[in-house]
Write a structure and sequence with these properties.
This protein has 140 residues and is mostly helical. The protein has helices at 6-25, 32-43, 49-56, 60-72, 94-118, 120-139; strands at residues 76-80, 88-92. Helix 2 (32-43) crosses helix 4 (60-72), helix 2 packs across helix 5 (94-118) and helix 5 packs across helix 6 (120-139).
Length: 140
């Protein structure tokens, strides 16, 4: 009945993937989006919230809520920029730095797990197609 429905099938896939990623990051008490945000900050400390929103394709308000949560758990700190005291750059704390390698390893293991299930080339092609479809829909 819904074989060609983009909404139904993309959401069904998203729920399945979310369960797998949620379980993987549970040991750090992080949801997948929180883990991705933390990984982005660890990879490039000093980003502005708007830069993180663009990179993670999330709204600024969602990024703010995630930053609040991660800051309360002592994973991140916000510092005023030198050029504008109202702007805040985001930096990882020592607590975040201690789990940096583990978070990246989880990401690598999840990618490898999906490659084993779907196939390396097939996974790359699928992700590429999903990104292109999203980009096309966003333009409309």
């Amino acid at each position: 009945m819904f074989e060609e429905c983009l909404y139904f099938n993309s959401n069904a896939l998203a729920r399945t993937v979310t369960r797998i990623w949620t379980e993987a990051y549970r040991q750090f008490d992080l949801s997948p989006p929180h883990a991705f945000l933390l990984r982005a900050v660890l990879a490039k400390p000093g980003q502005l919230p708007c830069e993180l929103a663009d990179e993670l394709n999330l709204t600024r308000s969602t990024i703010s809520r995630f930053l609040d949560s991660l800051e309360k758990r002592h994973y991140l700190i916000r510092r005023a920029t030198e050029s504008d005291g109202r702007e805040r750059q985001i930096y990882p704390t020592d607590k975040a730095k201690k789990i940096h390698t583990q978070l990246n390893d989880i990401g690598k293991k999840l990618t490898q797990r999906m490659r084993n299930i779907v196939g390396k080339n097939e996974l790359s092609e699928l992700v590429s197609q999903i990104r292109e479809v999203k980009k096309s829909i966003d333009v409309k």
